[in-house]
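call fold(seq) -> tokens
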Amino acid sequence: MITSLINENLMCLDLKVTNKDDVFDTLSEFLLREGKISDKAQFVADLQAREAQGSTGFEDGIAIPHAKSKAVVEPAVAIGICREGIDYGSEDGLPSKLFFMIASPDGGADHHIEVLAELSSKLIEDGFVDALLAAKTPKEALALLLEEKPANPAQESAAEVANKGFLIGVTGCPAGVAHTYLAAESLEKAAAELGYEIKVETNGSIGVKNSPSAEEIARADAIIVACDKQVDMNRFAGKKLIKSGVKEPIKRGKQMIENALQAPAYQAQAGGESHQAPAQKTKATSALYTYLMNGVSYMIPFVVTGGLLIALSLAIGGVPTEQGMQIPEGSFWQPVLDVGVVAFTLMIPILAGYIAYAVGDRPALAPGLIGGWIANNGSFYGSEVGTGFIGAIIAGLLVGYFIRWVTSLNYPKVMQPLVPIIIAPLSGTFFIAVIFITLIGAPVAGMIDSMNAMLVNMSGGNIIILGMILGAMSGFDMGGPVNKVAFLFGVGMIASGQTQFMGALACAFPVPPLAMWMSTVIGRKMGLFDQTEIEAGKAAGAMGFVGIGEGAIPFAVRDPLTVIPANVIGSMVACVMAFLFGITNTVAHGGPIVALLGAMNKPVIAVMCMIVGAVVTCLITVTLKKYRLVKSQAAELQVS
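ret:
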């Protein structure tokens, strides 16, 4: 396939680019000149849309932008080399130098996947990337790409004689693209070098390919599952098995095979798919992080969609009132706001549901979603507010582990088909409802009453201490119960004519989302955020402008030990500054938009307080993330 899609006219060995957009523009121009695409703007837009799903920048200076597009006349691959390298948002944080841009017709065959599969075998060859980067002419580069290494008869015969057995591999990454095939190629190469035959199943975006048969599984000596997505594990019951992320075999293929051959037999779980083999000793923190990230990945589209719709409607159609920012009756922007609210309402249940799904598989999804809804709706347990994203995390984990236990029980054969569709979801729903309504709900309601009483008692005290407390509460859980208590206290103070409390809170509320936007702008160049976070950062900035703190939630869930303390400190700074400057606010809302619309007495100073708080949070976030990244890289170098 690759031999028919590349020619010398589609190569540029001296790209003059400084960023990702320049790469898209320049290489797309090559495709346009060769008649491979008909509409450059459309194709670039489709490249950007694919990039929004996850960065196509990989390790070792390689990036593989690709898209299926209506603008593609015939499939082709444009290749570029930027020897200085650019910040592409690659996974290892290093500059990208080698670019393969794959154009595939929309509605046609999956050329980009086939090309990626072929490129994978080249990219893992020792010295291939260095040789390609050193190519002087397009002809030389093309020869390297098309070169087929001659088989070594001595090695082949040795492999035949020393065939030690048969292995099965399973690979798959969330996007189902490059890493899936790089991992498969690496396992095949490592198995051949160790004298084993191997069959590797790829779980890519074009579906599952090369699945082993029951007979092949029966004769396999070991199974290597290198997957960041769910696969059917029960078929491997009784076989030696290890499981890892998809990147692991790319770096340590031989070691994984040797570990698999020493692993104990895998025990299947009742009720469906399984995530992790007991043989694999994964740290609890790593597993927990994986579960949280599964929830975040599904939650982000709801945060972005709902947040942007709400921000747009309030920024353009909203007016400040005593009840907060309101859309005038009959306005075009009211249904836009309503749709945004729907997305925001679903955000917390989605987070809980897919955390549960990550822990307990499909049977945990429904009770996880229901648990998230209950967690976010205080009316179930007599509270004015729900437990927010923290409650969603608790609900998701509780449901997931409960369902994992339920599905692990031994059931009569006649009942086994009912476990994933009736027994597990029903018992999980009952379990989480009882837990939240009877055990968690009462303490939450009591905590809210206590915090509100504390704030009322302190309302006439030292403004700096009160500002620190209100700021910390507003930045802690971004729309959760602690944040809501501070907000309701501010609303109550407006009713009694004391508008300085809402003035201080209005400066603190937008700090977390504005800070996350700033952090992604700065941290992108340092490799601190992936492409999904960068896109979420843009939405967070828009939400911060209209005072919607929930825009920072995906960042807090992904990295709570960094983001939450940073948010708390920055919000405290903004809140204390607002008290000291005497900022007042007559509406129950916050953010720069409230100041710009005249609801705050000192709008310029108010916005300055918000910006200072956001900058403080941003600097703390970036510094902590950078420190942890450097520490992690040093640890990896030491291991390797």
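The first helix runs from residue 20 to 33.
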